[in-house]
Amino acid sequence: MARFPVDEEGPRYKRSGRLKRFVRLSTTAASIAGSAVVKRVGQKLKAQEDDQADALRDALVGQADHLVKTMGEMKGAAMKIGQMLSVAPDVVPREFAEKIKALQAESVPMPYELVSEQIEKSLGLPLVDVFRYFDPDPIGAASIGQVHKARLFDGREVAVKVQYPDIQDTLEADLKNLGNLAGLTLAFAEKSIVDEFMEEIRQGIMDEADYNKEAESLRKYGAILSEHPDIVVPKVIDEYSGDCVLTMEFMEGKKLDVAVDALPTQEEKDRVGYMFSEIYVWMFHEKFLLHADPHPGNFLLTPDNKIGMLDFGCIREYDPEFCDTWLEILIAKWNHDKDDLPRVFKKLGFTGMRGSAGANASQLNEIAEMTVTPFLYDRTFNWGEWHPQEELNQFFRGNLGLMQYASPPKAIFYFRVALGVWGFLQRCHIKGNWYRLAREVAEKRGKL
């Protein structure tokens, strides 16, 4: 029979309106900024820029616990932004990234009575008529829904994703607030480009809140990705899935980051990390699509050492030419042909705004050298020793005109994936030869 919970104390899932959510985010940001100001008071004067950077770093680390609590309670796009920050340790202070990593794995769950309501609303049946057993304690509570383990009356073990009430309205509110904040960039960017970026973000995030679309993606893309020998994808249980509920086969395994951390040797960690990155390279350059929500909580290491892929809410398809053109950046670097880089970046869709000529060949050569280093040289590369962010910061401080050089809006989820996968490899100090992997892919695609 179904297992029922007792009333428990502690944090509870909270619904909130657009204005309240905006105020909460603004208040949290102000708190962090205020802490930075306080930190500077009484300090010895030094270079102003370094002083501000150090104070902001200390404030971010000091306020991380509060930020995790706020974003975890708010759910929606606010929490998703926190998850994205947590897998990009070279973009924010490492101590901060480690603390907000909690957003990958856990957040304040909604109570059982809401879970039951959502299931009945979506399936038209009481929870006890659908499941022989239903664990009221979620095995994961994320930004859009939470997952419970259950058993059907025919004995199948299943994972049940249950969407938070009113989450689509919540996402729309967050995205409108984000759009208002993005409007502040219009002094540097063209409105049409900002609008394209916001629409790409909006579509990607709203897709994740459409469980019918996710079920369709799981069937379609799950079949494609299962062609890879190291990928396992759960099957949808159609009869017990609906607008607010997605029921799938239960997949055994440990969350990827937890599993890798527990491996006894660095060699074993390197093997799994390389396999994970190779899967993404194969996905993009051979299947021309991306599982575009790459935080480690969406992946399992199965008992037979394969990658279990979960959460198909954000899948992005690309034109093969777009995927191949990224390889042309590497080819230009391998051939020491920096003069070809402006053509390649233009082909990808990078463009100058407000009459800007954009980046020249030398600038693009420097950017490529800093950002695709792991793929440029035939050697064993240690991601844990690679921290390009400060070098990039210095470069852009010295080339302020590049603030008006815009990347293509359709690449935003490509960059999200790169930050997520690269951040995971950095945190786990994964070693391997990615140059040879890149050369092999370029040869397969007929680019060499």
Word description of this protein:
Strands 1, 2, 3, 4 and 6 form a five-stranded antiparallel β-sheet that branches. Strands 5-10-9-7 form a four-stranded mixed β-sheet, with helices on one face. It has 448 residues and is of the alpha+beta class. Mean pLDDT is 80; it is low at 1-13, 16-53 and 86-93. It has 19 helices and 15 strands. The longest helix has 23 residues, at 18-40. The N and C termini lie far apart (61 Å).
What's a quick, concise take on this entry?
The protein has helices at residues 18-40, 48-62, 64-74, 76-86, 94-100, 102-105, 112-123, 127-130, 167-182, 191-208, 211-225, 256-262, 266-286, 320-334, 341-348, 361-371, 389-397, 412-427, 434-444; strands at 131-134, 140-141, 145-152, 157-163, 231-232, 245-249, 254-255, 289-291, 299-301, 307-309, 315-317, 351-352, 381-382, 405-406, 431-432.
List the helices and strands and how they pair.
Layout: H1 18-40, H2 48-62, H3 64-74, H4 76-86, H5 94-100, H6 102-105, H7 112-123, H8 127-130, E1 131-134, E2 140-141, E3 145-152, E4 157-163, H9 167-182, H10 191-208, H11 211-225, E5 231-232, E6 245-249, E7 254-255, H12 256-262, H13 266-286, E8 289-291, E9 299-301, E10 307-309, E11 315-317, H14 320-334, H15 341-348, E12 351-352, H16 361-371, E13 381-382, H17 389-397, E14 405-406, H18 412-427, E15 431-432, H19 434-444
Parallel strand pairs: 5-10
Antiparallel strand pairs: 1-3, 2-3, 3-4, 4-6, 7-9, 8-11, 9-10, 12-14, 13-15
Helix pairs in contact: 1-2, 1-3, 1-9, 3-4, 3-5, 4-5, 9-10, 13-18, 13-19, 14-15
